[in-house]
Amino acid sequence: MDYKQQVAAALSSAIDGALSTEDVYNKIERPKDSKMGDFAFPAFALAKVLKKAPQQIATELLEKIDQSQFEKVESVGPYLNFFLDKAVFSADILHQVLTDGSEYGSNNLGKGGNVPIDMSSPNIAKPMSMGHLRSTVIGNSIANILKKNGYNPIKDNHLGDWGTQFGKLIVAYKMWGNEEDVKKDPIKHLVDYYVRFHKEDVEHPELDDEAREWFKKLEEGDAEATRLWSWFREESLKSFNAVYEKLGVEFDTYNGEAFYNDKMQEGIDWLNKKGLMHESQGAQVVDLEKYDLNPALILKSDGASLYITRDIATAIHRDKTYHPALNLYVVGSEQAYYFAQLKAVLLEMGLPSAENLHYIPFGLITVDGKKLSTRSGRIILLDEVLDESIEMAKKQISEKNPDLPNKDEVAKEVGVGAIVFGDLKNERTNSIDFNLADQLRFEGETGPYVQYSHARAESLLRKAGATEVSADETIMTDPEAWDTIKTLADFPATVIQAREEFEPSDIAKYSIRLAKTFNKYYAHSKILEEDDQKSARLALVKSVSIVLKESLRLLGVKAPDQM
Ligand code: ARG
Q: Which residue ranges does the UniProt annotation give for the motif 'HIGH' region (predicted)?
């Protein structure tokens, strides 16, 4: 049950229509100091409508409100403070968490609606950048959050696997390439060929003609061109998959740009039929003045398609295939202008899902102040950061808990979790500088801290043995228990908020808050003491463990039972 809703309802009937229930709900605050109640309503919100002093409004409201459902209601100055009935509330929340288990906090707001998520989307034959990593991790978490809200997310890896550069790559490979090298370290060597091509074509411009020729062949389905292209693609994917595997991220589809190569005509016809295309210096463009944007270039003067031409085809395909409830693109903020143009074009076309198109940008990431892109083009760098993190985690775990049986597995979950959590705890549009050692600490606002709090809860439950947990006679009135229970009660609303904002950091911050209140509770109480409250305390511990684990799962982070 949403207790804020209960407060809003009680207020609403007392206010008698002066403010909508929704407005009341949004005005209700959570006092920092619990002496001021569990919820507070600032009567300022009504002063204008009622033309009275807030203080007077508060006193009058207090008279009218049905107080029976609360422990007490007080007016303090211009505020109305609500104190929930602790016994009823605690038992109710713990009961709910224990009954629902990992389903606690789930809702069906999405009603099963399809949500394609364009995410990760690295470019073939190039290293995966930190930006692609962020897109992977953020997109994956948003998919989990959507599912928790009753949607059906479809994770689509829109690979950059088409374009004139593949003609160049084929020419370069045929001249200087060798199969063994590509197999050993595909990205590195493919980048080398590409770089060398650009060096040599300065003096040998005929190379460019050849490259154009080969790309044309590729477009026409020539056997050799296709064989080489799919091999480059396959080898690149192998190295990308090593990263995805480590992160534990899977995709539903890999419909990259090439997939749309033969599907672009429909979009072009659509634009023409609507009279949206016009010629500008030989090229075909769509005017977007109405949106305060520069014209979008759809076809080059030689008729060649562009990134946006393929994106229009992509949007049409997703629209027809999924009838998306939401249509998401998780792509770095450097493409903000481009996505504004894309959305504008789709709106002009009248594509049904254009209204639901949400571009979900995110900021830059640097590691210890350094950008992680590299000329030598090794995706390995990313892989190296993950490995280094796992190695560091292993060291810490071995010091802390030398007897842990499955150290390697836990080190992987903690090492990778630290990186994923360290990314997701930041509002996604912020740029972040990543310091591995900081993110790996077991104290502070880190993934390992939340994981450790979960493991601590599990260890308590193990120590308690087969003791029954029971939420029934919960009377735990100490403030630490009460804070923890209230935090547990906040989870469902946090799940909704994270979906509304497409913001995994809402969940990450929540998990830190829950871990902190729980650790305070842990420090203040003798949880395993044999008295009549023991099973209630264990119910609280069990509930915390469930919700911490579920929060981490939403972020794509594992929660080991021991560490
Ligand atoms: N491959 C692109 C890049 O690395 C990202 C693709 C984003 N998705 C899209 N539908 N345009 O910049």
A: 122-132
Give the residue-averaged pLDDT of 65-70: 89
Q: Is 418 inside a domain boundary?
A: no
Confirm whether the ipTM is greater than 0.90: yes
For position 478, what pLDDT does the model report?
A: 85
Give the pLDDT mean for 494-512.
Answer: 98
Domain count, the chain: 1
User: Are 284 and 298 a contacting pair, CB within 8 Å?
Assistant: yes
Which residue's CA is the nearest one to ligand 1's atom 5?
A: 121
The answer to whether residue 549 sits within a structural domain is no
Whether the pLDDT of residue 321 is over 80: the answer is yes
The residue among 57, 55, 54, 82 whose CA lies nearest residue 67 is: 82
Domain span holding position 38 = 3-83
pTM (two decimals) = 0.92
- Rounded-to-integer distance, Cα 468 and Cα 486, Å: 23
311 lines ligand 1 (CB under 6 A): yes
CA atoms within 13 A on the CB side of 228: 21
Position 374 pLDDT exceeds 60: no
Question: Roughly how many angstroms between the first and final C-alpha of the chain, as a whole number?
Answer: 34
How close is the Cα of 69 to the center of ligand 1, in Å?
A: 53
Atom 3 (ligand 1): residue with closest C-alpha? 122
Report phi then psi at 37, rounded to 5.
Answer: 95, 175
Query: The domain spanning residue 73 has which CATH number?
Result: 3.30.1360.70
Each residue's pLDDT tens digit, 242-283 = 999 999 999 999 999 999 999 999 999 999 999 999 999 999
Of 562, 529, 516, which Cα lies nearest the Cα of 403? 562
Q: How far is ligand 1, taken at its centre, from the CA of residue 388, in Å?
A: 28
Determine which residue's CA is closest to atom 6 belonging to ligand 1. Answer: 121
